[in-house]
Amino acid sequence: MRIFHLSMECYPIAKVGGLADVVGALPKYQNKMRLEASVIMPWYNNAFVYNHDFEIVFEGFIHQAEQMYDVIVYKEKSQDLGFDLYLVKIPGLLDREKVYGYWDESEQFIAFQHAVLHWLSAMEIRPDILHCHDYHTGLVPFMIENCPEFQFLKGVKTVGTVHNGEYQGSMDWLMSKYLPFFDASHYGLLDWDSRINPMAAMIKSCHVFNTVSKGYLEELFTSFQGLEALIFQERQKAFGIINGIDTEVWNPETDPMIKQHYSLKNAEIGKSKNKSEICKEYGLDVDLPLVGFIGRFAVEKGADLLPGIISKSITETNGQFNIIVLGSGDSHVEHLLKDLQKIYHFNFALDLGYKEYLSHQIYAAADFLLMPSRVEPCGLNQMYAMRYGTIPIVRYTGELKDTVEDISSGGSGFNFTEANEESAIHAIKRALSVYQDKKRIKMLIENNMNFNFSWEKSAENYLHLYKYRAENQ
Ligand code: ADP
Ligand code: GLC
């Protein structure tokens, strides 16, 4: 079975968040199952492309509004990734440094989808499955069926994965001039609330779609940024498949990004050495418990709660613990945290930015990982934390509910129910009191490290989705 994953992100090529981790891992595991999975994504002018060799496999051009753009498709040569990688370059549009945040983002995403389908049609490459990740590639199922230019691909099975329903790419109908020519009588498939909505279009036109956990699918029926009625209408083709983690990349025994390797057997010593290193670097007292936060400073992640949580919990505990925060995003949150860091520098370390190696070091060094998320479709941080023997303190939402059970009900983490400072601080204090009980902490670390979040089972579920569900639609 030949599968093409279409995505804006893929680890290690370009990563902003968990989408990259999923697209960098799932195809690897699918290929281990003897499927033929590849990744197609935009070309970014970043370190990965400078350090790898490519061959050109296609050259052509597309028209978008009044513009004509060249399209060049590169295939990565090394075969080291565990899947074939194709990068689509469109000089002037898709040859920039960053993944998101450009003024003409919608044009970029449309051009990427157009270019991919143009290339596959021109070369008569007909995969069994086109797997579209998030709204950025959500117009593909519509384009295949409704654009005469892609007649060759008509009928190819399309699968859509909703990683994050908060972002839907909604745009004014004036933007339709950027789309490849389509059968206008089917415009309703693109429309939601009198706008073009790529997330809605994906759900309407794909053969099947899934969310990245079962719990999140349930949540979308009542909270999907306006698409609740649509998901209800299309519920017969909706499934929930939880993400796995790449246990080759995320392995404390071999992880090249951490200072001290360790396994279940010597986790206590290994983790404490990693903790010493990080505490030394950031001027924190190594004898105090260390809480970590890693993530985008976004409302979904509860990042706006961090300043209050940090200042109040340090004050209320008389500075009896340390916290290290790695992340970036909302500038107001960044400013507040910078100011707080000056006041609480004995207990609070802040690293603003995106640093892959540091995230690994924090998972390895911290005693606890805090996730005050408001919305968490799956969440990978808690899984990485557990794999590295770090005890998660999470808000009871989305998939966090299912992956992290509270110690009061026999689990190995801490839950809190409300997305507010008090609730989070209460959970932190519970964690700190358990920290004194070394035997119990050892047991929690072991339980967490023993958890199996590997991709094997989820990759099987995707295969089932492709084979039986998509086929029947
Ligand atoms: P989301 O995709 O919503 O951001 P996930 O929990 O699925 O959340 O995945 C986040 C991924 O991004 C994890 O691999 C996490 O370690 C990583 N990450 C988030 N912020 C940073 C950062 N500032 N530096 C390094 N890695 C980060
Ligand atoms: C999204 C979600 C996150 C999920 C990730 C990978 O970014 O916010 O919860 O883990 O996608 O599916």
Instruction: Tell me how many strands there are.
Output: 17
CATH topology of the largest domain: Rossmann fold
Helix content: 25-40%
Proportion of strand residues: 15-25%
Largest sheet: 9 strands, mixed
Round the mean pLDDT to the nearest integer and report it.
Answer: 96
The low-confidence parts are none
Based on CA inertia axes, which overall geometry fits? Answer: globular
How would you sum up this structure, described in words?
This protein is α/β, with parallel strands linked by helices and 473 residues long. It folds into 2 domains: 2-244 and 456-472, Rossmann fold (3-Layer(aba) Sandwich); 267-452, 3-Layer(aba) Sandwich (Rossmann fold). It has 16 helices and 17 strands. The strands form 3 sheets. The protein has a 9-stranded mixed β-sheet, with helices on both faces. Strands 14-13-12-15-16-17 form a 6-stranded parallel β-sheet, with helices on both faces. It has a two-stranded antiparallel ribbon with strand order 8-9. The two termini are 18 Å apart. The model has no long low-confidence stretch (mean pLDDT 96).
